[in-house]
Amino acid sequence: AQPPQQKYFPKFVYNKIIPFNKNSKNKLIKLAVKKEEHESLQEFVYKQFRKIKLTFDDLNIFYPDIIFCKNNVCEIGNLNGSYYIDDDHLSNKGIDFMGKELNQFLNKNLK
């Protein structure tokens, strides 16, 4: 699976919330893709993974949306920076954000 595809490029989003103030976090959330939208875009991929899993029962799939999508919103970043370099590719910050969970997944499933 892939990280959630955002609706807007990070540069646009962060330009919309500057200067930072008490409403900036809420603006950041409003401009992020909703979990429901992400799931709708990924339905074909999820369906294919389910089919493959029927054949390869021991296949383990990492779903980045578990990390990025909380409270019905798939976060584009935080006030310290974006998790994305464009609408669907992770920045170094995004990779770091996902890294701990991915490392745990790999350590658990590649033994």
Written description of the protein model:
By secondary structure, the chain is mostly helical. Helices cover 53% and strands 9% of the residues. The chain is built from five helices and five strands. It has helices at 10-17, 24-31, 35-55, 65-68, 92-109, and strands at 33-34, 69-70, 73-74, 77-78, 81-82. The strands form two sheets. It has a three-stranded antiparallel sheet with strand order 1-3-2. The chain has a two-stranded antiparallel sheet with strand order 4-5. Strand 2 and strand 3 form a beta hairpin. Helix 1 packs antiparallel against helix 2. The longest helix has 21 residues, at 35-55. The two termini are 21 Å apart. The relative contact order is 0.21. The model has no long low-confidence stretch (mean pLDDT 93).
Tally of DSSP β-strands: 5
The unreliable regions are none
User: What gap, in angstroms, lies between the N and C termini?
Assistant: 21 Å
Structural class: mainly alpha
β-sheet strand percentage: 5-15%
One letter per element, helices H and strands E, the order comes to HHEHHEEEEH
Calculate the mean pLDDT score and round it: 93
Strand order of the largest sheet: 1-3-2
Name the shape in a single word: elongated
Task: Characterize the main sheet.
Answer: 3 strands, antiparallel
| Oligomer state of the chains in this structure | single chain
Helix content: 40-55%
